[in-house]
Design a protein that fits this description.
The protein is an alpha+beta fold and about 260 residues long. About 35% of the residues lie in helices and about 10% in strands. The longest helix is centred in the first third of the chain and has 19 residues.
Length: about 260
Amino acid sequence: RVAHCGTALSSDCMTLSVGCRAPSVSDLMSKLAERLSSSIEDSAVRRYTDDDLLKGVDIRTDTPGEITDDAKESAKHLVIDSLTSIISDDEWWDEFFGRYVTEQKRVRNNYPIPLEDWDDDSGSVEEDLSDEWGDAQSTIKSVLAGRGVLYQAEGIAFAYSSIPSKIHRGRSSHRFYVNGEMWQSESEAPGAKQNDMARIFQLVSNHRRLDHAILLANSDSGEHHGSTQQHQISPEVVQFLEELVSAGVLYGSEE
C-alpha cells in the first residue's frame, strides 16, 4: 500500500495524488452505525432484554455483578441477528451502498453549487453563464436541440444500479445515485424493453460529456454517435435532467 507517491521538482511546487478511494470495513461500519442511529426500523431499535435476570437470585450467595456467558451470548446474537436482518434486505443495502459510495468524502463548502445560487454573491449569472445556461429548462432544451453539451460536475461520483422489485414480481427497480442522493424508477411489465429512466440513468452515469446524439440515440441502435435513429425522450427524462442541472451536478456548456 502506497499512501502517496510524488516527486517534487523544486522547493515551491505541489504534488498531487489522483485515484479512487475504496471504503474500508471500518468506513462502512461507521456509516452503517450512523444510519442505524437515526433509524426507526424494528431491527435497529430492538433492545437487549434478559427476562431471567432476577429469577432465583439470592444476593447473599449469588454474584449479581458478574456478566455471565449467557448475557454475552444474548447480546452478541441480538446484534448479529439485527444486522443480518437489515443488510440481507437487498433493496435497503442497495440504497445504503449507492448513497454512501457517491457521497463526497472530503468537506467542500457549497459544492456543487446549485444553479439558483449563482447570484451576485457567488459569481453572477450574467458574468459566468449565458442566458442559455442560466436556468435548467433552457439548458436542457438547448442541449436536446443540438446547441451545446452537458458535463458532469468535476469531482462528483455518479452511479446506477438495478435490483428485483419488491412490489412487482418479475420487474426491476432502477436507481440513480449522485452526490449521496437517489432517484428511482420501476421497470415496465416483465419482458418489456428498457424504460426511458433506466436508460438515462445509465447514460448520465457512464458519460462525462453528454450531447444530443447520446441523449437521443435509440437504445436499440447501440447508443453511438453516428446513429440515424433517434429516441423520443419522455417528459420524465427531461424533468430528471433539469433536476440534475438545478442541483449543479450537471452543467451546460457551448462545447
